[in-house]
Design brief:
With 357 residues, the chain is an alpha+beta fold. It has 3 domains: 110 residues, Beta-Lactamase; 73 residues, Helix Hairpins (Orthogonal Bundle), CATH 1.10.287.130; 159 residues, 2-Layer Sandwich (Heat Shock Protein 90). Strand 9 and strand 10 form a beta hairpin. Helix 5 runs antiparallel to helix 6.
Length: 357
């Protein structure tokens, strides 16, 4: 017969959790502390039980424990610096929960459970992932930039070589000069685009009324596409929706997206633009303004949707694939972001979220 060993599975599990677990009784005596919690606090379970004084651990943690005992309510702090016995401050999250005895007439406090999670390792992994993502993005940027610069340079070089030939006619020289000028402007626009990726200065931010900027962009785009029968409908639920940003940069977002909507419509169609408060979305306690730009154009394929915000991705014959990438980055600068939904041959809807003023 196989011999069955007496194993304390609960102890094995608790001691190998990545979260620190502390259990206190209603008098705040230490009943249990696992290995991870010992490491976070820098004190062993034997030491804490021997001293029998909760005040020997981090003062901020003690304060939270006493608040839970007093208010009898669960408490969670997403980020807190906890000092260990060596004086080191490390970032953690902490969850405290009162545990009651419900067998009595009135529920009474029996234990306080404390769970502490060390965020230092998670923070490092997040930074490492962010670095890898940025490195991948920069690789795409440099590859795409090299490709985009190569084409106009080839045109400029070819035109210059023709002009260099003394036998070239006046008409040929004029034509080559126009090519050189056109390609030089194309290069200039490409280089200027990347200046918008520089870190944002808060000094250039002002209170911007979005409806005013959008109306100006619509007027500009409608003039350019006046040969198309495109109807534009606006619904500004909050006419005075304002955000704190750089107006020239926000204008680029709307110009790129509204221009794309016009381009997606072959001969006739509709563009609907709505401004409203994002009722179901809040980030860092900030309310968001939601701008929806929906068209009845040709739509975007599923494969295209995956790549749409990548640099130098374009389906246009003469496009550079910078506009939507740049728009997303500008929105990110101001704490916002852009989403897109599309059905091929049915239309596309861009939703721009920006922190409200």
């Amino acid at each position: 017969m196989r011999k069955v060993l007496a194993i304390n599975f609960e102890s094995i599990i608790l001691d190998n959790l990545r979260e620190g677990i502390i259990l206190l009784d209603k008098k705040l005596n230490f009943l249990f502390i696992n290995q991870e919690a010992e490491g976070i606090l820098g004190k062993s379970q034997n030491f804490l039980q021997k001293k029998d004084d909760i005040n020997i651990i981090d003062k901020k943690v003690v304060k939270l424990i006493k608040e839970v005992k007093k208010n009898l309510e669960t408490k969670f702090i997403s980020e807190i610096k906890i000092t260990d016995s060596l004086g080191s401050n490390k970032l953690n999250s902490i969850y405290l929960r009162p545990i009651f005895n419900y067998k009595t007439k009135e529920p009474s406090l029996v234990y306080i459970l404390v769970k502490i999670t060390n965020l230092e390792g998670i923070s490092f992994l997040n930074k490492q992932t962010k670095f890898e993502d940025e490195e991948k993005l920069m690789s795409q940027l440099f590859y795409g930039l090299a490709h985009e610069i190569k084409n106009p340079l080839a045109g400029i070089k070819g035109a210059a070589q023709i002009v260099k030939n003394n036998k070239s006619s006046f008409e040929t020289i004029k034509e080559c000069s126009e090519i050189i000028e056109k390609e030089a402007v194309r290069l200039e626009n490409l280089v200027n685009t990347f200046k918008y990726l520089q870190p944002h200065s808060e000094q250039s931010s002002t209170i911007v009324e979005l409806s005013k900027v959008i109306d100006e962009v619509i007027k500009l785009c409608s003039q350019e596409h006046r040969n198309k029968k495109t109807k534009v409908f606006t619904n500004y639920e909050n006419e005075s929706a304002k955000v704190l940003c750089d107006e020239s940069l926000i204008r680029i977002i709307f110009l790129n997206i509204i221009q794309n909507s016009y381009d997606s419509i072959k001969s006739s169609g509709e563009i609907k633009i709505t401004i409203k408060r994002a009722k179901d979305f809040k980030l860092n306690k900030k309310n968001f303004v939601q701008v929806e730009i929906q068209d009845s154009g040709k739509g975007i394929s599923k494969a295209g949707l995956v790549k749409i915000f990548q640099p130098f991705y374009t389906t246009k014959k003469d496009g550079q694939g910078i506009g939507l990438f740049l728009s997303q980055k500008i929105a990110n600068k101001f704490g916002g972001f852009i989403e897109v939904r599309s059905i091929l041959k049915s239309g596309t809807k861009f939703t721009i979220y920006l922190p409200g003023n």
